[in-house]
């Protein structure tokens, strides 16, 4: 199925933001995911056509970056950091608990109800809050297997969920992808931008000046 004309027009808007149109490829792929839910063959074809690239060139980019998915993911995509510090602090245990709860196998596995998908993710630059879980790229800090299971259960029942930092609520995967494509949703100033651990150095520096 061809992408909508609205999406094609929005893709052209993205291209117009750059001196060289092909620089818009990354946000265009996010735009495809915002409409289709993942990077479809049709989406690759649209990007190639508009940017004057081959489908192979677009596909190479779509398969290089892990934020682009080549098969459907859930409405809420859960990433568990299993890099060194988060793993030591319990990330591996959290991942195993969610894998069992969702009954999924492998990277980007999707629950049978289609609500939640799960992946290992690399460092989120939030090591001071380890172990960290993300839902559609929103932070949930200092997690435990039990708190992570409760989080996923709430997502599956449609309950509104508030991240530790960032927006006031977790949006859907497609909504998040539209923002990553570069279309502002008016929510950038919601919620806390930084937590106590992040600001501790600043607090100490200010105390020393007094």
Radius of gyration: 19 Å
- Which term fits the overall shape? globular
* Spatial gap, N to C terminus: 65 Å
**Topology, number of strands:** 5
Could you say which structural class the secondary elements and strand pairing correspond to? alpha+beta
Tally the helices: what do you get? Answer: 9
* Share of helix, binned: 40-55%
What is the H/E order? Answer: HHHHEHHEEEEHHH
Average predicted confidence as pLDDT: 93
> Can you list the strand order of the major beta sheet?
2-3-1-4-5
Beta-strand percentage range = 5-15%
Unreliable residue runs: none
Largest sheet: 5 strands, mixed
Structure description:
Helices cover 46% and strands 10% of the residues. It is an alpha+beta fold and 210 residues long. Strands 2-3-1-4-5 form a 5-stranded mixed beta sheet. Strand 2 (109-110) and strand 3 (116-121) form a beta hairpin. Helix 2 packs antiparallel against helix 8. The chain is globular.
Structure at a glance:
Helices cover 46% and strands 10% of the residues.
Notable traits:
210 residues, 5 strands, 10% strand
Topology (SSEs and partners):
Layout lengths: L4 H11 L9 H12 L4 H11 L3 H10 L11 E6 L2 H5 L2 H12 L6 E2 L5 E6 L11 E3 L2 E3 L4 H12 L16 H9 L14 H14 L1
Parallel strand pairs: 1-3
Antiparallel strand pairs: 1-4, 2-3, 4-5
């Amino acid at each position: 199925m061809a992408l909508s004309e609205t999406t094609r027009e929005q893709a052209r808007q993205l291209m117009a933001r750059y001196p060289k149109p092909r620089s818009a490829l990354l946000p265009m792929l996010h735009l495809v995911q915002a409409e289709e839910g993942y990077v479809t063959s049709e989406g690759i074809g649209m990007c190639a056509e508009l940017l004057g690239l081959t489908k192979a060139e677009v596909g190479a980019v779509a398969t290089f970056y892990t934020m682009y998915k080549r098969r459907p993911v859930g409405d809420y995509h859960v990433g568990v950091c299993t890099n060194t510090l988060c793993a030591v602090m319990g990330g591996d245990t959290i991942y195993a608990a969610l894998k069992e709860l969702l009954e999924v196998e492998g990277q980007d596995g999707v629950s049978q109800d289609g609500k939640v998908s799960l992946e290992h993710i690399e460092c989120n630059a939030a090591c001071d809050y380890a172990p960290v879980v993300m839902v559609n790229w929103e932070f949930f800090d200092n997690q435990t297997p039990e708190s992570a299971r409760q989080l996923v259960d709430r997502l599956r029942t449609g309950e509104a969920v508030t991240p530790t930092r960032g927006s006031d609520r977790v949006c859907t995967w497609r909504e998040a992808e539209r923002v990553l494509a570069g279309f502002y949703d008016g929510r950038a100033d919601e919620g806390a931008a930084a937590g106590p651990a992040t600001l501790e150095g600043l607090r100490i520096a200010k105390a020393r000046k007094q």
